[in-house]
Write a structure and sequence with these properties.
7-stranded mixed sheet; alpha/beta; 254 residues; Rossmann fold; 25% strand
Amino acid sequence: MTDIQHQEHAASFGAVAAEYDRARPSYPAELFDAIEELAGRPLREADVLDVGAGTGIATRLLHGRGARVIAVEPSAGMAAQLHRVSPTIPLVKATGDELPCHDATADLVCYFQAFHWTDPQRSIPEALRVLRPGGALVLVWNIKDRTVPWLAAQEARLAAALPNYHYYGAMNAVTDRLEEYPLALARRRLRWERRIAVDGVLTDLRSKSYFAVTDEAVKEPLLAAERAALLVDFPDGQVVEPYNVELTVAVKRG
């Protein structure tokens, strides 16, 4: 993806914020247990930045675990949706490449499904600047298991139909840059699944950046074809989506 395409895709989420909040997957409770284990501290009473918070799906879960969490989100549309749903959670408009925080003020800097939108040459040093000694950078990707036949077939259809299609695979390559910094790294993979109606799958698809930037004349026939294909695999209209959650926790040394 070129830099211009990257910027276009990153800017596309505001227009689909409602769909994003309604249909994107949540995260299993076991993930937050693993974050606490690998970071070496409880979430309760931790000072946490949820960067690229989107509509606050993970932000609310962190808050529910007792963290003092601040949502950091650059998109006005996404931030507005987050504020509508969770008006008491502090929210600032910014990116991970330039965090609006003083030095050594956070216990955790978290990215849920968002770190690939940053420039690691900027976002990693920014996280290190903001983290206290012993604090941790937490990177999470919630990845549909494309080894499952129906998901592999769906990916093939999307790749063929959408020139903008892209898929962020497990253990995204951007995490390799962490090796260059004074961080103690730990990784974990968790598996979970959700049940969702066919209409929910289509709404989730609408919220993807590669779909949001696609011409309307292409979207509706594609959605109709996807509905038909899903109903062949799930005739009762209830889809089982398997996920692998890829977790990287990088603890700041010193």
